[in-house]
Amino acid sequence: MEKRPEERPLRADAARNRARLLTAAHEVFSERGADASFEDIARHAKVGIGTLYRHFPSREALLAASCDERLLEIARASQSREGEEGDAAEALASYIEQLVTTAGLYRGLATSIGVVLQSGTPGCHATTQEGERLLARAKRERVIKRDVLLDDVVCIVTAVALAATGDPARIRRLIAMFFDGMRCA
């Protein structure tokens, strides 16, 4: 069976271009926000705009790829804490806090985080799976209401990231307030 184009390994020059685009995207997004122009990113990477679109057909695809390693770290860190003492509420709150921090990585990323998480990159997939696992655990232990969905959590992440703008104390306080609303009575 022939591999689909997205499954084929990249040629060396294409892999270099992709890496340059990701570096440029991170730098430009950090400076100008998630709505920075693709033309600026391509120019910063010293590639043509067509090269950028071949690798990343949408803004969300580029944002997801530029956040992918950080999202993988969130999932790994959460999984590594699984055997530690602590309850499901603490594990879920920690996950939400890390996701809020990532959503605030670039100005404007928070408004796209829900779409970014659905992009299918390894980090997005791992983070989504870990969120589902933590929610299931919290529901099983009757820590949160059974009707809370991961989409609800992503909405909370978006709201807190937009409101807190990088203030760790405010992030924790807002997450605690939202979490109180999700708790079982």
UniProtKB/TrEMBL annotation:
<feature type="domain" description="HTH tetR-type">
    <location>
        <begin position="15"/>
        <end position="74"/>
    </location>
</feature>
<keyword id="KW-0804">Transcription</keyword>
<dbReference type="InterPro" id="IPR036271">
    <property type="entry name" value="Tet_transcr_reg_TetR-rel_C_sf"/>
</dbReference>
<dbReference type="InterPro" id="IPR009057">
    <property type="entry name" value="Homeodomain-like_sf"/>
</dbReference>
<dbReference type="InterPro" id="IPR050109">
    <property type="entry name" value="HTH-type_TetR-like_transc_reg"/>
</dbReference>
<dbReference type="InterPro" id="IPR001647">
    <property type="entry name" value="HTH_TetR"/>
</dbReference>
<dbReference type="InterPro" id="IPR049445">
    <property type="entry name" value="TetR_SbtR-like_C"/>
</dbReference>
<protein>
    <submittedName>
        <fullName>TetR family transcriptional regulator</fullName>
    </submittedName>
</protein>
<keyword id="KW-0805">Transcription regulation</keyword>
<keyword id="KW-0238">DNA-binding</keyword>
<dbReference type="Pfam" id="PF21597">
    <property type="entry name" value="TetR_C_43"/>
</dbReference>
<feature type="DNA-binding region" description="H-T-H motif">
    <location>
        <begin position="37"/>
        <end position="56"/>
    </location>
</feature>
<dbReference type="Pfam" id="PF00440">
    <property type="entry name" value="TetR_N"/>
</dbReference>
